[in-house]
């Protein structure tokens, strides 16, 4: 379908306004002034509008001309971005990389790597998304993300994935100092715990079976969106449950949460980084090598385990 508005015509219009004259635009675009005038006249004829008011000493944009230029500059920028992105893809760089992280880990674990990548000056858009429990593997399997950091070893689905163990995460059963269980005799039994709602984080999985670790079948639940919400609920005394020790270390030290021994301790889980084995993008490869050997991630795991930190 033919359209009167071309990228070339928009470049001419933009150059005229920036340079202040048809002659200035001709010099910038390495054309003769008559070619600039022809392009504008042809555009006006095709659109059946007047783009410049030529009644004065200088041609001035009409309201229609200003509107076309404002919107046209958006198209010019999009065209430049498209050309650049095409060259990136040809060189093996993605235009965007999506990194998912398990809510058990803080987003700050990723920041040093992202900072170093941005310093390379490669215009790849980096997007990070938070996933909960089986949602980490689900996001990778469905390709909502290109790389997942902190996927557990319990809900891994079948598929051709490359994975790397990051470390183990320990859990602590914690309650608010104002909670009824704070002064209860230890170890706590299932009957003791089931009297109170379990604070849980909503699993973000869309297709894989959702997780329910550490919750008794007859226990009521109080659900938040992520681990931060779960911690806040327990800190407020509204629920009880297991929390990553590395995420609540300071709260335990300050007494804002109290660790309680239970009859059936929760075993540590292994967390790993994972990606699709056949994905070979340069940005993905860069982040894979960096994050699988990044102390900003592993320090939250191994160094915070009892007896290691």
Gap between N and C termini: 67 Å
Cα-based radius of gyration, to the nearest Å: 29 Å
**Number of E-state strands:** 12
Structural class: alpha/beta
Helix content: 25-40%
Strand content: 15-25%
Helical segment count: 11
Number of domains: 3
- Contiguous low-pLDDT stretches (5 residues minimum) are 303-309
What's the level 1 CATH class of the largest domain?
Alpha Beta
Largest sheet composition: 5 strands, mixed
CATH architecture of the largest domain: 3-Layer(aba) Sandwich
- Write down the overall geometry: elongated
CATH superfamily of the largest domain: Periplasmic binding protein-like II
CATH topology of the largest domain, anyone? Answer: D-Maltodextrin-Binding Protein, domain 2
SSE pattern, N- to C-terminal: HHHEEHEHEHEEEHEEHEHEEHH
Reading side by side through the largest sheet, how are the strands ordered?
Answer: 4-3-5-12-6
Q: What integer is the average pLDDT?
A: 89
GO molecular function: DNA-binding transcription factor activity; transcription cis-regulatory region binding
Protein name: LysR family transcriptional regulator
Pfam families: HTH_1, LysR_substrate
Keywords: DNA-binding, Transcription, Transcription regulation
């Amino acid at each position: 379908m033919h359209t009167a508005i071309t990228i070339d015509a928009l470049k001419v219009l933009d150059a005229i306004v920036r340079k202040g004259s048809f002659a200035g635009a001709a010099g910038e675009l390495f054309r003769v002034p008559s070619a600039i005038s022809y392009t504008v006249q042809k555009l006006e004829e095709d659109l059946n509008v007047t783009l410049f008011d030529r009644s004065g000493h200088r041609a001035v944009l009409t309201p229609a001309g200003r509107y076309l230029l404002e919107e046209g500059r958006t198209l010019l920028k999009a065209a430049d971005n498209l050309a650049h992105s095409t060259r990136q893809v040809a060189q093996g760089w993605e235009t965007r990389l999506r990194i998912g992280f398990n809510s058990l880990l803080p987003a700050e674990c990723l920041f040093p790597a992202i900072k170093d990548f941005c310093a390379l000056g490669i215009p790849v858009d980096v997007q990070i998304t938070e996933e909960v429990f089986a949602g980490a593997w689900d996001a990778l399997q469905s390709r909502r993300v290109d790389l997942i950091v902190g996927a557990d070893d319990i809900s891994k689905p079948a598929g051709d994935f490359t994975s790397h163990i990051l470390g183990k995460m320990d859990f602590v059963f914690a309650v608010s100092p104002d909670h009824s269980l704070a002064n209860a005799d230890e170890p706590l039994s299932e009957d003791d715990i089931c009297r109170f709602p379990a604070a849980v984080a909503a699993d973000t999985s869309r297709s894989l079976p959702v997780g329910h670790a550490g919750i008794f079948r007859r226990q009521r639940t109080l659900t938040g969106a992520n681990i931060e919400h779960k911690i806040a609920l327990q800190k407020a005394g509204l629920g009880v449950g297991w929390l990553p020790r590395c995420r609540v270390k300071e709260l335990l030290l300050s007494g804002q949460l109290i660790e309680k021994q239970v009859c059936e301790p929760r075993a540590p889980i292994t967390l790993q980084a994972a990606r699709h084995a056949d994905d070979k993008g340069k940005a993905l490869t860069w982040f894979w090598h960096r994050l699988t050997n990044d102390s900003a991630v592993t320090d939250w795991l191994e160094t915070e385990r009892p007896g290691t930190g």
